[in-house]
Amino acid sequence: MTARSDGPRSGNLSKTEAAARSALISEVRYSVALDLSADEPDFVCQTTVWFRAGADTRTFLDYVGRPALIECNGAQLGPEAFDGTRIHLPVRAGRNVVHVVASAPYSRVGTGLHRFIDPLDGAAYLHTKFEPFDANRVYPCFDQPDLKAVFELQVTAPTGWQVVANSAENAIRQVHGARTRWSFAPTPPLSTYLTAFVAGPYHRLSATHGDIPLALWTRASYLDALKADAEELFELTGRGLDHYRRLFGLAYPFDSYQQVFVPEYAFGAMEHPGCVTFNERFIFRSRVTSESRRRRAEVVLHEMAHMWFGNLVTMRWWDDLWLNESFATLMAAMAQDRVTDFGPAWPSFAHHAEMTARHADQLPTSHPIAVDAQDTDAVRLNFDPLTYRKGAAVLRQLAGELGEPVFAAGIQRYLRRHAWANAELGDFLVALSEAAEVDLAEFSAQWLCRSGVSTVTAAGQARQVQVSRLAEPHSQPRRLRARVGGYRDGPTGLQLLDAVRVELTGFNAQAFWDVLDPDLVLANDDGAGYLKVRLDPVSRRAALDRLSTLVDPMARAVVWGALWDDVLDARLSAREFSTCVLGHCGAEPDVGVLQSLLERAVRACVDFGERANLPSALSVLSAHATRELDAAAPGSDRQLVWARTLASTAGPYQVRLLEELLDDQVPWPGLVVDRDLRWRLLTRLAVVGEVTDELIEASAAADPGGAGDRHALTVRAARGTVSAKDWAWAAMLDGQLSLAERRAVMSGWQQPGQEELLSPRTADYFTALESAWSTYGPEFALSFCRMAYPHATTVEQNVLARTDQALATRKLPRDLGRILAEERAGLAREVAARAYDASSTVVPG
Length: 845
Ligand SMILES: [Zn+2]
Fold this sequence. Notes:
It is a single chain. The protein is an alpha+beta fold. It is about 45% helix and about 20% strand. Strands 5-4-7-2-1-10-13-12 form an eight-stranded mixed β-sheet. Helix 5 packs parallel to helix 12 (about 555-570) and helix 8 (about 405-420) crosses helix 9. The chain binds zinc ion. Zinc ion binds near residues 306 and 328.
């Protein structure tokens, strides 16, 4: 075991401290000069901060590097001014200037200044990631969103590198032999978490949109793949910028739009003004489906919405992180059918976003959308489905009620009023209320300030529909409005006969409609509300039998969601759900929906199905996948989706087939075993058969640049032998590997069918968890807590008891306790669902 090599621990800043500091400090300006030219574990940073203080008093800069010199208003301060996470300053009323020379280590965990060495050519690639509280790992600063400042950045880098930052270069680059100095123009006022730069021998593709310079950046090993998609990305970027300019009524607020794909990025993407960073998984080096392109477009549009909402107008404190993220998520979904060729986003929003939000909302750790973030430590775990997705679903509901034009008018008012400054939820609601001329207090209290999802069912009898609230997280029920559809089964399938809007203020409501004894009654059938829908027994039977005949994709999405909720709630057996998926998914025209249904069918068998039935449940899926592959159009997206399903379900009797596929003997014309599919097949072969080191190494060599090495770690960890698991355990805890590499090991660690092998290691998990935070740092500990939690085990009751013990002692850091509670709830859910599956019989299909 090697302890973490990421230097000093981050500090923590409370909301109260931040409020006091922003009351004291104003007119902040930074000059930051970094030297990245030495091939060292550390980089050097010289920072000058100018600001005005309201009184003669003491304040502090956040910083976790190693200061060599601290000067405040010309006087040098002694080492006692620095306590490890803060530089304490005696300031005077009026203007102050602080100068700090310091060094700090590069990061290997994706936060601060991350350094990646390309194994292909040994070149270093650097990027920053500061949200929520990591700018202070690179330069001393007032690291809080409401002390916006002008930044001037200088970077000295090896000659031949490129440096991308928030603003354009403002001076001639100065080359001094092997070192080159880059200077960037002063930025408009930015929050510290939005400052960013990327450095290394990156390659650029350029374009313009109107007067906005556009660029895409990547490293050499990804350049060809990026070139192939550059036109698509530039066109999307241009259309998106036009769309948002019209919607928000304001020109794009920054001077360029550069999108940089960086290795080992810890997020999907991040919205830095002028320098948006993306995870490299969004450069497609293997064949992908149109769904992958749709999701990439969604991310591009999400980050772009932040340029106005988040970057131009920024939250005052992290309490409003949800508003920032939910808003961008909603804007990206609303933009989809206006900006892209992918059509309306809402069925996929129901399949993915709403489903994961409902799930998170039923965990013991659920919280209101609007949170009281007491300090920056508490923010880290708020990047969750409630913050991004439930918030988006609830804002969508609000936009629907107010009407889109009114909603847009409220947003324009908000953006104009607070441009280049900070604002909070109250300001947003005031702007919307003014535009809509309605009071939003009830909306805010019922939807933003309360956790939990309301469960609703509807049933029809004679010409009456009865709508009932089954479960309500709060004693004062929320006001719900939902459309309810009545469907009749006929020769052409389930046909909508009538729909009524029902308002539910208490627990029950009735309405009359023009349907006599419908076969399917579906609450929220237009998917407009954030609700959990439970089908009555008659309707559920009709859905299981006839789901694919429902014409409306939105109504189908709502039904699929209700059925999956039933699996999670141990009300529908895993085998009945997967039978339903196989029976109906073929008629789903959207390949993204097909893919997510098949992934759910696999999850049903693996996580929620009776253990003893797993081999036969998977063999049903893989046999079905093989038949679909026989029939699929060569080279189609659907062929690829079925091939992936085969790669996640193939059994020991299909080892030969897996080996042939890996040897490029493909029986299905048009199917290419490229990098991505190869790694999927190899991982499965490692579980059900044997994979030699030579084969893994050859595959990694064919996928150079780091990604192949990470996949190789996953395959090695997936192998079902004692020695493979011994190796994987040590690799997970190896501080010499980057977090991305250790996560790759963890993702191979637990495989279905390896329960006997993994069960004896349960105790090791809990022992390692106790010291993970202090030994390896929070980033590793959070990943380890979630990804290595024992799910593939035969001793579930033991795991649940150990978890309860660990939670009861309250010795774990708060964030780990929260993840542990979620994993415990997940395991308990799996145990209950498996028992239900075991007790149920297969419905003839
Ligand atoms: Zn975002």
